[in-house]
Structures
1.
Amino acid sequence: MNPTASQAPIVSIANVTKDYTLGKVVVPALRGVDLEVHAGEFISIAGPSGSGKTTLLNLIGCVDTATGGVVRVAGQDTKQLTERQLTHLRLHTIGFIFQSFNLVQVLSVFQNVEFPLLLQRKLDKAQRRERVMQLLEQVGLANHARHRPNELSGGQRQRVAVARALVTRPQLVLADEPTANLDSVTGQNIIDLMKELNQKEGTTFIFSTHDAKVMSHANAVVRLADGKFLDRISAAEASRVMATGGH
């Protein structure tokens, strides 16, 4: 755990299940998962493809609902919230870096990053511009502010998604493979930015990754297998396990 992490869990998951129905077949994605993440932690979710990593992040991020069990975010039982309350929680508490980017194609890079700030209605135009340009500078895209997403490479679109997730300074950031489309140098820059926010502002990060180098920065690694919670281990131990191909 990060030394600055508080004792109050910002995420609490109890016996959570998630099933998907394909025709007449029920496919379990998560099977009785229990997990607590405290404010200020920097947590990696690891596991092979199909282990439930993205599903778990979607439940925590309130973009999907659990079939069973309880998901609490910032002390709130997400199943008990109205759609309006869920929207408020997503907008003011959570930043989400989607693996598929989910950028608005008709908006410029600047406008995509600014959009959450417009919805929040907390900053004036000058303040929004300063915040957005600061983030674009940090992710190396200040010179691309007027470009549209279709004019960018996959790695550049990923960095726009990172900036958009961080621009509201959320308490909790969820990232689904945040460095998957980036070269090693840019990926390291993104991880450094995430770590800086974690250490200086106490932002909680939960991210999935297959990259051992990215995983090594985590305070702890939560491993999933076949939709089940396997264990919670240190980043050093996770690196040893990956190196040996063991469990």
2.
Amino acid sequence: MQMSWFDDFMHRRVRGGACTLHGSTGRSSMRVRTLGFLIIAGVASAPSAFAGEAPKALREELLRTTQALVDALPTGDRDVWEKSLTDDAVIIDEFGRIAHKADTVASIHAFPKGLSGSIELRDPHVQQYGDTAILQVEEYERETVFGQPLVVRYESLLTFVKQSGAWKLAGYEDVTLPTEPPKLTVTGLTLGDYQGSYRYAPDRIWTVSHEQGELHVLARPGAKPNLLQPIGKDIFMGSDDERNLFIFRRGADGKVNALIERRKFNDLRLDRTG
């Protein structure tokens, strides 16, 4: 689940070397997506497998199982997870942390006082490949952290396999979906300080401009401008799907001389050229 309403719960879990369904709000990992692609490719290429929309009864069963799993987390009901997972199940959260059945079940505890929440399953899609089924679903999480309401959205991929006539969860991965963050009022900003051209290669130039109190960055001619939302002095967040950080650097003279785009835990530096 998410750190936003799993704060203490998640920290206990991570220190123990395990993770359950989700971690804190964050971004998707290549490992999560790669595992999902490998699972799909594997079942799709199996000689006895066939791809097709799952029957309504199976779709409803997998949704019931998934809803029961996420409902069991706030209450600390380990039995639901114990019964629903295969013995070799793999659970990967949006940070790429990997856990297996024993780790996951042992890590489940009721939320401490002050933390609460629920998850609504939205827009489900179920594909069946013989004795394997894949559920793609959005998990819409409403959280309350000591009276503060939070909303986190996840896109999840669950892989079920049929064992002894029962559908069991063998793989669970999720990624965080970008949502509109709260706007912050940052005083003392002079948007004109940032306006100009920034280069990271001979023919790769970004243009930063401001208009009507808003700062935008244009990565190439004809592209959609990316609105930069201030979160601190010289620090902004993009408004596109990636929500990267844009950090303006200043020289000894106090003038902006570079732009850093922090993306996926890496920094892309652009030097100011005009």
3.
Amino acid sequence: MKGKEQKEKHMFIREIEQEAIVTEPSLRNLCKSNQCGNYNTNWMCPPGIGTYEEVINRLRSCKDGIILLMVYQLEDSFDLEGMNKAFSLFRGKLDELIEDITLHIPREELLCLGGGRCKICDTCTFASGEPCRYPHEAIASVSGYCIDVNSTVTNAGLNYNNGPNTVTNIGLILKRPV
């Protein structure tokens, strides 16, 4: 989208019940195929994020939460620059939403999930074997938690597929047990 301002076509923030979040163990294989380049590189993607059983137990221990879905218009289906810009804008909105929620709920009581790898640190400590510097601020990968995004979004009464030349990003903010 050279020279054009990227804007969201639609933005939705909805409550989501725990039961509406659909997981699928086979989705872990997508992470292992490393098509995104994040597998085995950081604490918030597999395998650093934990085994399938560990992430499902962590996820299922949470209470209901909020889903953020943003749809962006692209120039065409090959508009990688537009996709990257949309993702960056989405992460900014997700960060704002988390910040607003933490005015009422401590950040360590939230499980926050978004697309892609965590971007808090320029260099993750995963490669050095040191623990995560900001475990309560990190945003974990939706894919790493084996969440079936299409089914989960549908269960929330939203659409994941929003027509040609669009990209859809989602995030989840769930309340951890205290």
4.
Amino acid sequence: MTNFFGHNAIPSLPRSAQKIFLLVTDASSEALQFVEAIEDDEGLSGRILKIANSVYFNRGDSCESVVEAVATIGTAELRNILSASTLNDLFPSTHPIREAFWAHNLAVASFSRELSAHLAPGSESEAYVAGLLHDVGKLLLLTVDPARYAQITEETGKTGEVCSTEEAAYPFNHTEVGHFIAREWKFSDALITAIRNHHDPIQSLPPRSMSLIVRCADLLAHKLRIGFPRGYTVLQNNASLKLTEAFERLQLTGDRGRDLTKKLEKNFQQESEILALC
């Protein structure tokens, strides 16, 4: 794959980013470890202080240090903010579609975390990162080949066929690119597998696995049209049909699935306002 992209196209994972991703995916990480990692990055420190002093967290007294900011935000929300902020820095782009991709990634991350809380408690943080990274292959393709990949995105939105449309233009699809990046970055096997398999047939994915959780979260984001403009009705309709199958596989049928969908959508709307500050 490096022969196609070139050796410099795939960003290496900086030491600071490695440390952040290790911390956020480790349930035993403590507040002081987050403080140390944040203080190592001046830009990140400024962002965390800005968020802690925003209307979403400020309780009257402004935070003057990273220690105070971490205490104000709390480690649960901090994990989400750090994950999103770190990945956002790795694939900078001013292309209009980049904003849509990012909104979709944040939604899938949020939905993956909440689904994991219901179905696989204890792995919520890793599920969040898996959801955030599930389309990292798309971010790279948009970065290195923006004009062509924008056309591919428009076509897939109208036909509903994502991977096959990509494979008509490239010798791979975005899940394979994402799999390659995740291996290069030495992520866990569960993360690598979820990124690679998030377009696989639903019945082929193990029940309650991270791969199935991310697959379901991705379909839900498509159904809710998060990250895609109006007019992509085929993609949305296909996702709605497959989501029913995914919910059945996760044993979230009937009112349980509908109630959870409403909760996830509401939670994401609140969360996205905070993450917009990253």
